[in-house]
Amino acid sequence: MTAAPSDSRHAPRDHHGPRTHREVRLAARPAPGTPLTEDLFEIAEVRTPSPEPGRLLVRTKVMSVAAVMRTLMDEATDVPMRPFALGDPLYGPAIGEVVAAPGTGFTPGDLVRHDLGWREFAVLDPSDAQRVDPGLLPDPAAYLSQGPTAWMAVTRGAEVRPGDTVFVTGAGGGVGSLAGQAARLRGARRVIGSVGSQRKADILREELGYDTVVLRGAGPIEEQLRTAAPEGVDAVIDTVGGEQLQASIAVANRGARIALVGALGAQLTGSGAPTTAIDTFSLLTRGITLRGTVLHADHLDLIPEWHHQFGAGLRNGTLSFPNSRLHGLDNAPRALRELVEGRHVGAVLVEL
Predict the structure, then answer these.
(1) Rounded CA separation 91/269 (Å)
(2) Dihedral, 318, 324, 328, 331 alpha carbons, nearest 10
(3) Percentages helix, strand, coil for the chain, rounded to the nearest 5?
(4) Chain centroid to CA 200
(5) How far apart are CA 157 and CA 289, in angstroms?
(6) Cross-strand pairs, 144
(7) Are strands 56-65 and 94-100 parallel, antiparallel or unpaired?
(8) Phi (first) and psi of residue 129, to 5 degrees
(9) pLDDT in tens, 196-229
(10) CA-to-CA distance for 176 and 188, rounded, in angstroms?
(11) CA dist., res. 88 & res. 72, Å (int)
């Protein structure tokens, strides 16, 4: 990473923040199929703007990284999101504190969620900032969890029911680490997860309520899943695709529901379009439902529902928020690299 020179001589003085702040920019695009490296990013020092009347100046307190960000680093993607532009700061979910809010309904000190992470300060339209209640969740960073997506997958995608055997692929990720817990809340009898290391498998069983684990690389996924679920699976939350989705269909019971909520198998490797060969005959003859679900397209009403559920669960101990935290904007590129490499369980956050 390289730092762009700062120029604070003419920085405005009325924004109630420092003259300059830092932001992380995309310096180069990764070559297809190559590992993510930190020299693809640049940390630049820039002037901190003053908010015009009707806009907010927000100081970022914590931001999150996600697998989709690796996809957005490519010049063109199939993801319905704006790719990162070369030389521009990246963007992503963050929690920040309002510093100045002239002519708005916000007050300095308010906590807000916004999508201009990867920078220490952001100027926002009020419509792009969602005020968060610091009393609802014990930790404001929990507003950055992927719990709403997990809750959507469990309740509307896979329609988990009492007594179900549930399989969650990518169970160590931000969605999967909460989907297993959410399935328990819905009355699942048995919850199985897939991960890529024995360390993660132990965490899933010992801390996150999973009954057993399918270990990627320890043998064919279908064989492992049949052993883990001898009576078949009733509901699947799939964040990976590929062999794991194929195994899910092979082991699914009649009437099983499979929720597609991600394609990590392709996103984390930069291997191209996330395609999977599907056994459509099995879908037909066993009445299996395969349903793609996107939170921000169709299920926004579930976000406040999840936050209330999450807050209560965190306080009474029935839910946990698995996460890893790195400190300082300098470590944001490292956080994304380590997420792509599969080093962490749960959400990966950067505290500024």
Answers:
(1) 20
(2) -160
(3) 30, 25, 45
(4) 17
(5) 9
(6) none
(7) antiparallel
(8) -125, 125
(9) 999 999 999 999 999 999 999 899 999 999 999 9
(10) 15
(11) 13
